[in-house]
């Protein structure tokens, strides 16, 4: 308690008390050459001498907000999965080209392109010629907490005249007979892993399919549509390029997943095109455009 004008008053509380205490501190410090920290409008901290007649300093010392720096959001993680590898060559082209080599070459180029953008963290399921079971590829995607899974292939059909790229998503039923045959071929890749990893029983397959969240299905469908749009007028497409079937490698319940067939090794025009680095660059650039569009929509809350 202090006396003023013959009566007692309480010291002010709250922010006014702080201002008065700061003023007294400044008045006392003016004589001793005290330096006080002052936060400027740009957020920088400077030390200025205390001046008794400078209420401006009081306001800045008391009211200047602290600058809070937020960490940047984490980058989306993309898992690129070159099909086949090692003892599994995949499709063998009409002139002897192995699908496994085409797949890893294209996926590696796409990896480098995406990483150079600085927008994503990108992981390859394989960077060399080795075999990975289908379930192991999905497991890798979960291990790295992928936000998007893209399996890259260049398969073959019995019809040598069929050519063009296509994009596949997971479904319990195939969209057409050709896609059903393709899924059967891709799923049979696990025959190279030995008897313990043979085909999944039908009842187990139905359970796995039911675990795929509707949100994941929508994300997969949006990504597939983006790839097809990006390929148009750049890459030869099948007549009906958006297809679906029960591909084992796409059975992840919470990661949007697509399988891209860049063309068919059974068609000599597709095979020759896929052997050319310039053509594979066109594919990877179109796929990057599709990926950019997908994550832009996601950031806007449109997925």
UniProtKB/TrEMBL annotation:
It is an enzyme of class 3 (hydrolase). Residues 138-292 form the MurNAc-LAA domain. InterPro entries: MurNAc-LAA_cat, N-acetylmuramoyl_amidase_3, TAT_signal. It comes from the Bacteria. Its EC number is 3.5.1.28. Gene3D superfamilies: Zn-dependent exopeptidases. SMART domains: Ami_3 (SM00646). It catalyses: Hydrolyzes the link between N-acetylmuramoyl residues and L-amino acid residues in certain cell-wall glycopeptides. Coiled coil: none annotated. PROSITE patterns: TAT. Pfam families: Amidase_3. Keywords: Hydrolase. This is N-acetylmuramoyl-L-alanine amidase. It comes from Bombella pluederhausensis.
